[in-house]
Amino acid sequence: MSKLMKRLSVASAAVALAAGLHGAVQAQETYTLRFNHVLGPNEPFHQGFLDWAERVEQRTDGGLTIEVFHSAQLGVEEDIIEQIRQGANIGQNTDAARLGNYVPGIAVVNGPYFVESLEEAYQLADSPTMQEWQQELADEHGLKVVCFDWVQGFRNFFTNKPIRTPEDLAGQRIRTPPAPIWQESIRALGAEPVALNFTDIYPGLQQQAVDGAELVYPNITAANLYEVLSHGSETKHILLVNFQVVSSQWFNGLPEDYQTALVEECRTAGQETSATIEEAVAEAKAEVMEQGMTVVEDVDLEAFREAGEKAYEELGLVEAKNKVQEEIGK
């Protein structure tokens, strides 16, 4: 072989090696987020999360993929949040009540009658106080809020008796998630809160560990809870704003354009899903009535609003509530 041919051969080998190394580096730069939520596969949120995943994967050319796990397949929400804080590549659909365990003020978003429309819920993103709380969650507790444009609809009381006033809830053991603002809210509204995971509601009702639950209509149809509950009373006491959280450490390790894609597509999918939820609520309400559930619409909302203020007072959140509501013009 001539010297020229040898040089060309060596050069080609070097190029091939460099290409191989580049390919290996490229392969190492792909990222996966394992995203967990407690809702069933038939819930509107699940399809919304799948849409979010598809758009992020397309936008990053497959560099960032989201694997969505429904029905708490990865574990209990509180346990998942702790794994997220340790830096795991896991995400969780959660709420302000649970985030309030780390930054107490943010729990107000989960309080009674805090926001009462999609417009008010979306305005929260522009609240300076909300931005400060999110920064504190990220910097001090390892929880990065990707977005919170996912509004699950109004929560109502579902029981085996009609509920029209707070007094009607006296003695009723109502399932709630295990978070202070949630439990105090239900207590303020007149019931006895009982902490249960979402997947335990059906057997809990069967075994009479609880007398009812406060949920959105699509929860009732998705989990067939009309089989163990007879009445839905439209107290509309919480417009449930959901937060998508990931590890701050993991998020900060993403390329900047991947971070942007994750956040922007989260907001887009969330607002689309929230609009879909409004339609789903009407359909679910009709379905539970077809299944024999009685819907109580003549509820004394003013009495419930007044009662709900006790939750903020009990937890020392009146000032925080008033400040954020002022910032969003409520």
TrEMBL record:
- What superkingdom does the record give? Bacteria
Residues spanning the signal sequence: 1-27
InterPro entries associated with the record: DctP_fam, TRAP_DctP, TRAP_DctP_sf
Q: Keywords in alphabetical order, please.
A: Signal
What is any Pfam family matched here? DctP
The protein's name is: C4-dicarboxylate TRAP transporter substrate-binding protein
Q: Which organism is it from?
A: Chelativorans salis
